Amino acid sequence: MTSVGESTASPSLWQQIWRRKPVAVMTDETGTDTEGGELKRTISLFQLSLFGIGATIGTGIFIVLTSAVPEAGPAVVWAFVMAGVVAGLTAICYAELASAVPVSGSSYSYAYATLGEGIAMVVAACLLLEYGVSAAAVAVGWSQYLNELLDNLFGFTIPENLSNAPEADGIINLPAIVLVVLCTLLLIRGASESAKVNAAMVLIKIGVLVLFIVVGVTGWNSDNLSDFAPFGVSGITSAAGIIFFSYIGLDAVSTAGEEVHNPRRNLPLAIIIALVTVTTLYILVAIVAVAAQPFEAFEDQEAGLSAILESVTGSSWPASVLAAGAVISIFSVTLVVIYGQTRILFAMGRDGMVPPIFHKLNPRTLTPVPATIIVAVIVSLLAGLLPINFLAEMTSIGTLTAFLIVSIGVMVLRYTQPDLPRGFRVPFGPVIPILSIAGCFWIIFDLRAVTIYVFLGWSAVALLWYFFYGRHHATLGKQASS
Amino acid sequence: MTMVVGYPPDGRRRAVLHLAGMLARSSGDDLVLCAVIPASWPPSPARVDAEYQDYLERAAHAALERAGERIGDDVEVTTLVHHARSVPAGLLEIVEHRDASVLVTGGFSSTVNRLLHSSHVPVAVAPHGFRAPAGARVERVTAAFGSDDDQLVVAAAGVAARVGATLRLASFAVRPRAPYTVAVGREADDSAVVEWVDEIRAAQQAALGRVSELPAVPSECEAVVGRGEDWEDALEDVDWGPGDVLVVGSSPVGPVARVFLGSRSEKIVQHSPVPVVLVPRGVAEELADEAASAA
Description:
The structure holds two protein chains of two kinds.
Chain A lengths: L12 H6 L4 H5 L17 H12 L3 H13 L3 H24 L7 H8 L2 H38 L19 H16 L5 H22 L15 H12 L7 H4 L8 H30 L11 H10 L3 H34 L18 H17 L2 H29 L14 H15 L3 H25 L1 H7 L1
Chain B lengths: L1 E5 L7 H14 L2 E9 L11 H22 L5 E8 L2 H12 L3 E5 L3 H9 L4 E4 L13 E5 L5 H14 L2 E9 L10 H28 L8 E8 L2 H6 L7 E7 L4 H6 L3 H8 L4 E5 H13 L2
Parallel strand pairs in B: 1-2, 1-4, 2-3, 4-5, 6-7, 6-9, 7-8, 9-10
Antiparallel strand pairs in B: 5-10
C-alpha cells in the first residue's frame, strides 16, 4: 500500500486528502472460528437478481409520482426509463470499485480504501442524504398513507396542521415524527428483522403494486395521455431526478461481487435483470396512473396511488388495502434506512471522521445508542418540517453525486492503480463510466435550482468539517504519526 | 461432554467464568466460551454495517480471550463468537450445534429468564458477584425437593457421586405473613406449616432411602428444610458454603405461561446465594435412569 503518510513530519493537507485506509486494516483477524453466516458462499445469478429486485423495489414508487408527474406529464414513463438506465450504469461502475476492496461495507468504506480520505468524506456527506434524508422522505410518505388508511377505515384523519410540513400549509408532520421515534426505540432495543420478515415485506410491496396495476387499469382513459410530453425533454429529465429516488438499493447488487459465482458475467447481468424487472413494474404503475387521471391532478395529491384507486373504483377497499400495504412496508424501510445510517456513522466514528460519540455502544444491547438518538432527532426534524418533494430531490442528488464520484473514481483508478486487483472490471473500457457520468450530470442539472444550491451548501459544510475536524482526528493519521 | 458458557462481550460477568470453571473442573467437561453478538442486518449480501459488525466481532474475540485466560489451565477452553438475532436464541443454537450438556450463564436478567424456560439442557446460573477460588470444585449438591422431585433427587445423587460431592436435599416452606388477623389467626396458619414440614421431612427420608440403594452413592447425604416469609428468607434459612450448588427441577412451559406466570424456579434463581442449576424434566429423567443403571 502506498501513500499512508510515511513522512515523519505532520502530513500536508494534500497528503491527508489522498491518504487511503489500507485494506489489510479492514480485514485482519476477522473471526477465524466465527460460526453462522458470513462464510464465503456462492450466489447464483438467479439469487442475485432476486436480491436486487427485493432491495430496489422500495417505497419510492409510492411517493414519487405526486412530485414527478407534474414535471413531465404522462412522459414520466420515459423518466423512469432514464433514471433506470443511469442507475444501472452507476451500479455497474460501483461494482468495480467495490470489487477492489475485499471486504463489504458502504460506499464510504470503499471510497476510503481506494480514492482517499477527502473523497470518502464527500461520499459520506452524500450517504447522509441517501440514508438520513431518504428516511425523512419515506416517513412523510408513510404519514400520507396512514392518514388515507385512517380516513377509509374510521372516517378519521389527523388534522392538516399536524400532518403537513410548514411549506405544505401545515405546522408539523406529527405522524412522520412518530414513525421515526418508533423505529428509533426498536433500534435502541436491538431489534432486527429476520430474513423471513424481510422477504414478506418485499412480497407485500410487489403485491400492492400489482394490485394497483390490475385494479387501476380499469380506469384507463386515453384522453389523459393525449398531451403526452407537455414539458418536453427537460421536463422528463427533471422528473427523472425525482424518480431516481425509487432506484436506490440497486447498488446493493454491486457490493455482492465477492460472493457471486462468475462475477464478470453475472454481476452486470444481475444488475440488468433486476433493473428491467423493477423498471417494468414501475412503468406499468406509472402508465396506469397517468391514464387514470389528468396529469394536473397529481399535484399535491396525498397518498397518490391510494387516491387514484379510490377514484377509479369508486369504492374504498382497494385503496385501503394499498394504503395498509404501504403503511406496513414503509415502516420496515424506515427501520432499515435508519439502521444503515447509524452503522455508517459508526464506521466513520471509528475512523475518526466524526466525533467518537457515534461509535459508543450500549454494553448490553451492543447498539450505538447515542448515534441512533442523534440520527433520530435530525431525521424527525427533517420529516416534520420539510415537504416530501424537496426531501426526495435531496436524496436523489446525494445518491447521484455519490455514484458520479464513484464513476469518476473508477476511471481514475484505472490510470493511477492499474495493478490493483479487481474482482470485477467494467466491460467496454471507459464507455460505461463516461455514460454514467454524463447521465448523472444530465439529471442533476435539471433538478430545481434550490435543490442544487442546498446540495452545494451541504457539500461545502462537509468539506469545512473535514478541513477543521476530520483530517486532524482521523485514526489513520494518528496511526501513521505514532 | 461440553459446557457452553454464555459470556457477554462487555466482559462484565466474571461470576459466569468462576462458575463455569468450577463446574468443568468437577465434571471434567470442556468449556466453549461464547459471545453472542447481533446478526448482520438487513439480511443481504450488501452489508452497509460491515465495519460495525467487524468491530463487534473483534471486541468479542478479545473479551473471550481474556476471559479464557482467567479460568485457568486445568480446564480445556475454546472460544466462539456467534451471530444471532438475540442472545438467548444464539446460546440455544450453540448448545444444539455443539451438542452441549450444560449451558452456563449469569445474573438474573431477561436473557437468563428466557433461557430458563426454553432450554432443553440444564442451565447453570451464577449469582451476581459469585467467586470461586482457583482450583475450586463442587463440594455439595443441594437438590431442591418438593413433593414430586424424586427423579431430580436421583439425578442429583448420580451427578454428586460422579463428581465426588456430597448430597443434600433442601425443601423450602415459603409462607407469607398473613395480611390480616382473622379469628383463626396466625397460629392456625403456623400449624399448617408445621404439618407440611413433617410431611416433607418424611418424604425427604424416603427419597434418601432410594438414593442409598443406587449403585453409586454420594459419600454423605443429608436433608434440611428452610422456612421463611418469602423465597429470599427461606433460602437464607439454610446454611450455604463455598462449593455449594443448588439443583432445581423445571418444566418447560408454553409461551403464554411464560408471559403471565412467574415460576418457582425463577424466584429461586433470583434469590439464591449460591449457583443454581435448572434441570428440565426430560434431562432429570435421563440422568436418573443413568444413575440407577450405572455399575
